[in-house]
Amino acid sequence: MRIAVPSLPILLSAALLLAGCDWAPSKSEPELAPPSPPISARGNPSRDIDGLRRHVPIDVEVSPLPMARVENFDVRRGRAYPMQPPTIPHSIDGYQVDLNSNRCMLCHARANAPQFQAPEVSVTHYMDRDDQFLATISARRYFCLQCHVTQTDAQPLVANEFVDIDTLLQRERRE
């Protein structure tokens, strides 16, 4: 024998009616509210993305900026903070750095640096994670581009007001 079970909406309506609520589906059209004002202080976020798109709306095609050129001055740059990895002051196009070869070490290895007039890699590159010195460069320091980067003539996409610690200390002494 089969027993008929009422559908879920009928059960909910009956439960609400027994609880004293008057609920019935409305047949009238819902009222449409006017669109809310933009949330962002910069404008409508669906139209204005940010400085990375040069304030061009997302639905407009923008021509790309020209490719930046790598600076090739072979001049050591200052560092902004202690322990900052030095930047690469020359082009590294075509350099092979993989499991079998590291082109950077041709010039920057401790044995070859004087011959090529290149700075030697730091002794920290020859240390393992237990601070034990190794005969060859450490595997955790082998892939140079994890920390060191070339410099280009590109203009910054976003504002940067970074001031290094030496400049901050000089300002503090003057005040």
UniProtKB/TrEMBL annotation:
Major subcellular site: periplasm
Write out the similarity annotation.
Belongs to the NapB family.
What are the start and end residues of every segment in region (Disordered)?
A: 27-48
**Which key words tag this protein in UniProt?**
Electron transport, Heme, Iron, Metal-binding, Periplasm, Signal, Transport
Which protein are we looking at? Periplasmic nitrate reductase, electron transfer subunit
**What InterPro entries does the record point to?**
Multihaem_cyt_sf, NapB
Q: What is the lineage of its organism?
A: Bacteria, Pseudomonadati, Pseudomonadota, Gammaproteobacteria, Lysobacterales
- Protein species of origin: Luteimonas endophytica
Keyword Cell division on this protein?
no
Q: Where in the cell is it found?
A: Periplasm
Signal peptide location: 1-24
Pfam families found in the cross-reference section = NapB
